[in-house]
Amino acid sequence: MDGDSSLGSGPLIQLLVDRVVEDPATDTRILVLARKDGGLDHFMVWVGSSEGEAIKRALDTAVTKRPMSHDLIKSFGEHLGVTTERVVLTDVKSSTYYATVFLENKGVTRTLDARPSDAIALALRCQAPIYVTQDVWQRRSGQQLDAWLSKLETKNIGAQEV
Amino acid sequence: MITQMQVKGLMFDPYNNAYIVILRDDDQVEMLPIWVGKAEASSISLALEKVAPPRPMTHDFMKSYLDAFDAKVISVVITDLNENTYFAKIHLMYGDSEYTVDSRPSDAIALALRSQAPIFASESVIRKQSSEELGQWLENLKPEDFGKLDS
After folding, report:
1. Could you give the ipTM of this predicted complex?
2. Scanning A21, A142, B24, B143, which has the fewest C-beta atoms within 10 Å of its C-beta?
3. Please, what are the domains in chain B?
4. Do A115 and B61 touch (CB under 8 A)?
5. From the centroid of its chain, how far is CA B107?
6. Given B62, B94, B102, which is nearest A69 (Cβ)?
């Protein structure tokens, strides 16, 4: 079926988190992902403000007084010997993206269903690669938003300088 | 010494534009208010009301992370209060070993509620927080401040 996707539909595309942009109109953040191979197209995911901030803190390697939620998950991994191997954006349905987190411990691999925001917030803290399937990449809703996004960021820069 | 606490509720604090988790001991003698952020309050509220969101929220993901390797949350303890900031520890059982992990109380409570794990507070934390002051503060709250969280 058209809506079904699997990891086997062509090579995965590795993504890097480019930036987190504030959407001042709504209480959300736009997570902008770029292709690691240098391709110019972007991949954008709308996330909640606290999820966006969790990703931004990882990008900025910000240190907080107490561990935040994803620092805690990372800390669980360090205590238990669980490695975050990679995260994959596996599906999109009604503009909602789905992610899978691959974990490894003593040769055993487990996969977890996650929201992309949690998957990416954890991946950044664990230096784990982030991938998207060919299928989800093709169905992303980013391209036509590039112009809109640059307009938004111009506005944001002004606001931040105040 | 530690005292077992129950989550009695969640309130909006209109003066600080934040949320408060109210912990009480079983004898209803001690009360511990813990200020938490909106996302954390929303997560605790979902657990209290046993609402399963369509997508796993951060603490659901945290729980399934531990479940994936059969690590169990034995208990969480609110251990310290320093400059109005609470600190907590999560006790995990994994294999034959116990692990203690530093955490914010909000994460610890959100995870404990999802894991049916008991929540404790250390004696020093209960001693440090002035319940008298809190009682006064609570009296000033209007009933509508106790409304349900809209997450």
Report:
1. 0.87
2. B143
3. 2-143 (3.10.690.10)
4. yes
5. 7
6. B62
